[in-house]
Specification:
With 325 residues, the chain is an alpha/beta fold. The protein has 15 helices and 7 strands.
Length: 325
Amino acid sequence: MEFDLDSCVEGVLGADRTWLGRAVTLVESTKPDDRTSATELLQRLLPHTGGARRVGITGVPGVGKSTFIDALGTYLTSQDHRVAVLAVDPSSTVSGGSILGDKTRMPNLAIDDAAYIRPSPSSGSLGGVTRTTRETMTVVEAAGFDVVLVETVGVGQSETAVAEMVDFFLVMMLPGAGDELQGIKKGVLELADALVVNKADGGNEIAAQRAVRDYRAALAMTAPANPRWVPPVLAASAIEGTGLDQVWDQIQSYFRSLTDSGALANQRANQQVRWMWSMVDDRLRDRLQSSPVVSDLASDLEHQVATAQTTPAAAADQILAAFDI
């Protein structure tokens, strides 16, 4: 059955959950016809976007990202916000399968009428975000969600991909910072707009406060992502619901700082341009991999590289030369 684009646009703008789900499925599709429809859909939704707070949340597995997002999101909906969670699940690099269990890990938001959770497999994408996370963000903003929380896999890949598509980048940490500081990547600290030490409960309160002090000291030795902003380090407990108001207050303060200085508009404009070039990279790669000429060459060249008959650089040149024909 032919996809009804007019009904989809109307449904998304009316926050109809059925059409919202269909729209996100459309922009995630890799089918050529679907991509054409998705491009038109996004073009028509674009004028209705831009009003949301876009917050990226990352952290090592086990830090409690999903529980924290469930608690923070529930706090925000109680403050009359509408919250969309784009939760990226780890995909198997072997089978391509994905757990897609975020709705079970966010039980309160899953039944909240003012919230929308969209789990998507990362499919091996760097930075723990899908190739279509930005497009999905456009759809949920057009549907009227004024806070978009992007949860990443947090497996140590390039968090730069996340930081470049959100307004505020929050890095979650665990209590017991002494050992963790030895292994923390300086680059992640440089991207952070705030650090939150989670699980400050159940006897961990003292350790959490010690971690807050240690992370503040670590941040003092790094260059902040925004020279006008000193990233705060906060303690919170997703289970007890403590510290969530302070986290949101800091996010709001950051937005006021960006808006008053005019930096928010510039930042989002630059993100749009980077998004364009990211799409160029993705689509060139897709065309390259689907090229019959490249397919004919690939197997033989892979064998030559594997058996040291030629160099990877020389083989890459041959593939690109064939693709240019």
